[in-house]
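Forwarding these from the shared drive since the link keeps breaking.
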Amino acid sequence: MSLASLRQSSIYGNFRLYFLLDIQKTSTIRKQTSTNIIMEEDLVSNFTRFFYKKTSFNPFVIGITLTLLALLVAITLVLPQQTESVLSSIKQGIFTHFSWFYVLAFSIFICFLIILSVSSVGSIRLGANEEDPEFSFFSWIAMLFAAGMGVGLMFFGVAEPLSHFSSNITIGGIEHKEKEAILFTLFHWGIHAWGVYAVIALALAYFGFRYKLPLALRSCFYPLLKERINGKMGDFIDIIALIATLFGIITTLGFGASQLGAGLESIGVLSSNSFNAQIVIIITVMIIAVLSAVSGVGKGVKMLSEINLFLAIFLLLFVLIAGPTLYLLSAFSDNLGTYFSNVVNLSFKTYVYETSNMSWFTGWTILYWAWWCSWAPFVGLFIARISRGRTIREFIFGVLAVPSLFCILWFTVFGNTAIWIDMHQANGLLSSMVGSPEKLLFKFFTYLPWPLLTGGVALVVISLFFVTSADSGIYVLNNIASRDKSLDSPKWQAAMWGIIMMIISIVLLGAGGLGALQTMTLIVALPFAMMMLVMCLSLWKALIADKKYFETKVSPTSSFWTGGRWKDRLDKMLNQTQEKDILKFLKYTALPAMRELRQEMIAMHNLNVEIVEHLTNDDDEDNFVEIIIKKESMRDFMYGIKSVSHEVSEQLINDDNLPHIQHSITYLPMTYFFDGRVGYDVQYMSRSEIIADILKQYERYLTLLDDVGQELMAHEQTELAE
């Protein structure tokens, strides 16, 4: 062998050796990689099984929400001033450019609820028709207050009337300023506030208990989205609701801790309202709330709510008796009249013609409207949960009328008393403290007997309101974040939500970042308000379908069924009829029946009877047959059957369990009458049954001739020219 050949063979041998070694190495790496992938897949699979077994969370919803929350908290801590400045600018822009939208939206909500309550759909029950309410009326109302606005009533019962009384929004003499101050307060806390809660709670309760859909916001859009509510679109709806609820509860918890601390300081329990004291308050409230949440909404919240309502009524009666009682009783009647006589005007007022009051309008009314919207998912879901078994009319009355009347009474007693004391005893001292509502309430009690007692009771009421809000909030958070609303959430999830809210509240309270979170909550309220308008449309569509469904009687055709020919009828029921089938029915069943009846009426009873027919080809939808029995002094009796087309929904066509439905249009033989009454389907009738049906209608015609028929059928009939 030559040197060149040897070298070439050597090179080839080395290359082959390197190639084989490389293959072996690559094979080893692939085996290791494959092993790693299998281990990773097993790890992911094990984690997924663990996640679905140990939690009730929807991973996409909970993941996105907690990520956004962590991101906002981190940005707020790193750039607190810049973050709050940007968010405040966005909020102010929304309030300035969309104030008209909030005004119209809230008015639409109220009108929508009123229409439902007075219409026939008001009798529809939130559940099965025979279902009874889950809670007594008193317990139900107590829980409404606790979850709705209990804390707000305590702090703003004195502060808001005094604030409006001291501002330029009220004009005229002292009495007129006081009257307007109470009016504006009642407008912010009356039916409009509860109307937002009522809309979302009604939709949730209706679809949850009537349609048997999950008690979730996505279910409220089922008539519009159908099965898409179970996809990503439904997830995004839940994410918006979860963010608004979580942000709202955290900011309330943080600010509430500072308010409770100020109250404890005012009555001498704390030497100062320090940050450490507020931390203790937050931890205490959350521990009680978690323990109450673990016990279940039917136990914990119900018991705490009833205790709290009793204590709140005690405070109300105490101030009424200890204050200017006769003056307050007269003011209550006056405030009722003032509120109801001005509520329509205020509902649509945007202050476009009073630009000097625009800043007050956006800073008070629009701020309130946005805040009620941001709290609507939380409060609405809780109200829905406790409203099973009530009729729509009872629900709207309970959620709108009763709480609104109580709010009018509350602000009359506390607001009018505060203004009266400020004018006659405090010499304006209370008005000067409107910027510190947490201190103002307890300062107000010092002008009444036993301030330590009333201040202590007020603190207990405020604390219980916070506990019930946090308690029901944990339930709502678990519900929104759940992948399956029928699953019972593990108890550790209640503790998890409590810890998350507690830690974030403490961190942001210490860093001064709660304002940014509150602003973000108000920003999220705008898209949610838009969603609520769509929700109203969805609910209306569902209620119309509900009414039609439950009012539909058994087909008149079936009243003739005796069990004979049941196989033929079953075959017709499970096959879509087309125009050729209707033409066949008209030719060989309906028309012979009419001819047989006509012959009998003429031969045996000497009646003037004629038959009109229009039977052409298979594609003509105008095919019909009529039998007419003529009368000289009255309008002729006419019984007709015609071919009518009906569209079939795509959902039914695509349903694998309904293989007999294949066409997008089906045809039915429908009756029609001389007097314009609504007809019915007669496709299952035989010849003799059609004759019986004609005679039944003719008997009705003869019976009415001696009664109201004289009014309706004695005049000559004319048709309008086209």
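-- next protein --
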Amino acid sequence: MLSAGLLLGSLSVCSADAGQRGIDIEIIPADGTGQSDVVNLYSSSYALVIGIDAYSDGWPKLKNAVADARAVADSLRRRGFGVDYYENTTSDSLRQIFRRFFIERGASPDSRLFVWFAGHGHTLEGEGFIIPSDGATPDDDTGFRRTALHLRDIGNFARLARSRHSFAIFDSCFAGTVFGATRAMPPPAIRRAVLNPVRQFLTSGSANQRVSDDGLFRRLFLEALDGKRRADANGDGYLTASELGLFMGDAVSNYTGNGQTPQFGPLRDPLYDKGDFVFLLDRQPIISSQSGQTDAVIWNSLRDSQRAEDFQLFIDTYPDSPFVPFAANRLSALTAEPAHSIDPVDADFYVIVDRANHRKLPMVGSERLGQSVRDEKVRVTGKVRDMPWFRVQRQDNSTAFIHASLLSPEKRSVPPVILSRVRQPGDLFSDCEACPEMLVTRSGRFMANNSDIPRLFDIPEPYAISAYEITRADWKACLDGGGCGGYRPEGSDANSDLVPVSHVSWDDAMAYVRWLSESNGVPYRLPSDAEWEYVATGFGLVKSETENQSVREVVRDELRIGLPAQTVDARAANSAGAYGMTDGVREWVADCQIGQETRRCVTHAVRGAATLENESGNATLPRVWIEPDARSPVIGFRVARDLSSVELGR
């Protein structure tokens, strides 16, 4: 455990056996028939509870965060949780507290971990942060990034836990980029799927909302645990995190007139989004429905609807249902005019970079009004303040919203680059002074390990790929040229500009590619998975073994290595003439996995490893699939481009 001397305030740790109380649950067959099973879901239960009132560096002091945390800690102790309790923690200790809790308390696969944090939160550039007692304000950009704890870091710590389930509640407001907000319906009873691993999150408010410091969120949470509120939607005596998320979202939104809209969802990781955290209720909810179970079944089937008339029909049909206030709240939200602040933009026309849906409101789940295709020009009339959405004018002069990642300012007129030299395999060249050095490959065939079954690939024509990973100097050139969205990755102020740039997402890499292409008139791109492997294996001549890894391996690299320190030319080039293919940083490539429901890319491939070549000299070529907005200190990228007919000697 951390020593008390590292903390501001007090530390209270459970007794040795306080966290040993488990839960037995009754598993009902999925078809509702047959014999049910009683299984031991948890053998131990642990909670981390943190409350911060005493802010000292520009953040307003709070009145009830510590009191709320104490009340939650007391309730959890009564429920058999071993509680690690902290007050007014500083930036030096907050990160270690989270890391130790998930690793040490989560050592057993049969444990459950619960987190409650009450204090300030903030959203910066679409990313969520929680603020320690000595945290700097965003006005001090460097100080803020140094002291605030990134929500993605907490997600990574949660991945390191071996426990089956973890559930983190933040009585704070920020953007939940590490988890996918959802309102999935609970099943009519506990199913076997609940046993799967899961990491779930709940925030008391969304980005840029003012969360009330009056104890409302804590009070509703504890009343739900005590069975005083109808949070157990299916009435089976178990309160799952999914049910709690639905209840808290509706209840808090209703009480605050949509001034606070809690966000709930699982970690964006296919390894940790299937199960459900479970509380055992002391008694059944006191609210009963005069219409039996029919209203509950109907409510569960329509509560995600985007049609206002569905909720009006529910209110008219079941006027005495306890769900009527929530239906009225949803009806009000769907019929209210959006109150989003719109900022002006520099360019009138933008270009669609991928197929883009037109949304009625600036949110993914909003009604779809239409669609634009790649390279189509659209008129942009403004940007939604503090949200990655643009307002556009449709052909019928109505307005809609398109996500910022799907738009790029209209390409400026750039004099074409004269590509007169014939490129030979192994040649190195740059298209401009600030452009990365490119390596010319050769045509050929090779056996690629880019699927479970090796596949023979033809490379009919040479292409160019950057000989080195994109460096901090390359990224700085993009910033100086007005590109890359102005984003400055962590570590960009390091001593050497020749270190690989990292802490960049797939979306960030594509922003660099767009800037490089537009500023030079040459169409750059990310290499495909097969193109990357072709070069990494010396044009297919070096024996390789590809291992599909989980995000957990990336997190281990982060903890073991941190930010890259070696320059891109620290080790010799491989037989193809490329540097850093099996060391340096992992690298984004173009390939993606398509979501079954969205039919769009949900994750992109990351190749290579943040390690050295193995002792046998064979290339080690891991692959991991990660969300396009994820950033890691051990992930960077390199670029590629096709060669023109002149460059190919035609």
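The domain at 10-280 is CATH 3.40.50.1460 (Rossmann fold). The chain has four domains: 10-280, 294-335, 342-409, 428-642.

- D.
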